[in-house]
Design a protein that fits this description.
By secondary structure, the protein is of the alpha/beta class. The protein has one domain: SET domain (Beta-clip-like, Beta Complex), CATH 2.170.270. The chain has 5 helices and 15 strands. It has helices spanning 33-43, 51-66, 93-101, 217-223, 253-260, and strands at residues 5-7, 16-18, 24-25, 30-31, 110-116, 119-124, 133-136, 140-142, 155-158, 162-165, 169-170, 177-178, 184-190, 195-201, 212-213. It has a 4-stranded mixed sheet with strand order 2-1-5-6, with no helix packed on it. A 4-stranded mixed sheet has the order 4-8-10-9. The longest helix is centred in the N-terminal third of the chain and has 16 residues, at 51-66. The chain binds S-adenosylmethionine. InterPro entries: SET2_Histone-Lys_MeTrsfase, SET_dom, SET_dom_sf.
Length: 261
C-alpha cells in the first residue's frame, strides 16, 4: 500500500508523519469485485441463470463494471474533441490527450496537511491560475444501490452509473474539504465516451492556499453534520445559509457622542 505523506499543520514541514488510516494511492478506478458479483447475482433474473450460463455472466459482469463509467450515449459532448457520443471520432484517446495536455500536473505539488478542525486538507505548493484543470476524483467504483450506511463520506455518485468511493483508495483529491467560498469547482464531464469527475480552479490560487470545493447541501444532510468552513468562521451552518451577522464592535463613549451630534 502506498501511503500519502502528510505534514503536521503545526509543524515546520519537517514534522512529517503518516496519516493514521491511510488509503491506497491509486491513479485508476478500482473495484471490489466480490461486491459487484453479489450485486449482479441479486439483479440477475433467477429463471435465466443456468449452470452453464453462470460462469459467463460472472466474467461479463466484472468487465462491464470495470467499464461502468464508459458509456454509450449520443447526447453527451466530449470535453476534449467537442463531438457527441455517437461520433466514432471520439475515442479513448480524448481521455489520454486531455489529461496529458490540459491537466496542470499538480499531483506532486499538493501538500496534505493536518489533522486540523476538518481533518486533513489539501494545499498547493505552486501558484495555480484561474480555469486550470487540476485533477480527477479517483476511487473504488461501487454500486449505487448500497444503503446509506454502506456509503462513506468520500462517496461521489455518477447518476445512473455507479459511485466513486475514495475512502479506502484514491488520489490527493479525496483530501479536498468543502467550503462555501470554494476556489475549485467539481464537474461531471465526459471524455472519450467516459464519465469523469474533474476539478477546475475558479480563481488564481497562491502557494500554500487550501484547495476547497462545495460539497453541496445534500452531502451534509446525508452525512448528518453541518459545514464548518472558514467562510462562516467555522460556525456550523448549511451550504446556502447566510453567514451570521457579526456582532457590532463595542462603541466607545467618544463615538456615541460624535454620532449624536
Ligand atoms: C472528502 S473528505 C475530505 C478530507 C478529510 N478532511 C480527511 O481528513 O480525509 C470529507 C470529510 O472531511 C470533513 N469535512 C470536509 N469539509 C468539511 C466542512 N466544510 N465542514 C465539516 N467537515 C468537513 C468531514 O469529516 C467530511 O466527511
Amino acid at each position: 500500500m502506498t501511503r500519502f505523506l502528510a505534514f503536521n499543520a503545526d509543524g515546520d514541514g519537517e514534522n512529517q508523519h503518516r496519516i493514521p488510516e491511510p488509503p491506497s494511492k491509486i491513479t485508476r478506478h478500482a473495484l471490489r469485485k466480490q461486491e459487484w458479483e453479489t450485486e449482479a447475482a441479486a439483479n440477475r433474473p433467477a429463471s435465466r441463470v443456468t449452470k452453464s450460463k453462470k460462469k459467463k455472466v460472472k466474467r461479463k459482469t466484472v468487465t462491464k463494471v470495470l467499464d461502468a463509467i464508459k458509456y454509450e450515449s449520443d447526447e453527451l459532448q466530449c470535453l476534449a474533441c467537442l463531438l457527441y457520443g455517437d461520433d466514432p471520432a471520439c475515442t479513448s484517446k480524448c481521455y489520454t490527450d486531455f489529461t496529458r495536455q490540459s491537466f496542470r500536473p499538480i499531483t506532486n505539488s499538493v501538500q496534505i496537511r493536518g489533522p486540523g478542525d476538518l481533518g486533513y486538507s489539501a494545499h498547493t505548493t505552486v501558484p495555480i491560475e484561474k480555469h486550470e484543470w487540476i485533477g480527477e476524483y479517483i476511487g473504488e467504483l461501487r454500486p449505487l444501490s448500497l444503503s446509506d450506511t454502506q456509503q462513506s463520506h468520500y462517496w461521489l455518485p455518477i447518476p445512473g452509473q455507479c459511485a466513486i468511493d475514495a475512502e479506502r483508495k484514491g488520489n490527493w483529491t479525496r483530501f479536498m474539504n468543502s467550503s462555501c467560498k470554494p476556489n475549485v469547482k467539481v464537474w461531471g464531464e465526459t471524455l472519450g465516451k467516459r464519465h469523469v469527475v474533474l476539478f477546475q480552479v475558479l480563481k488564481n490560487i497562491a502557494v500554500g492556499e487550501e484547495l476547497t470545493f462545495q460539497y453541496g447541501k445534500a452531502y451534509f444532510e446525508k452525512a448528518g453534520f453541518e459545514c464548518r468552513c472558514d467562510a462562516h468562521d467555522g460556525e456550523p451552518h448549511m451550504p446556502g445559509d447566510k453567514p451570521a451577522a457579526k456582532k457590532p464592535a463595542k462603541t466607545t463613549g467618544k463615538k456615541v457622542l460624535k454620532n449624536a451630534k
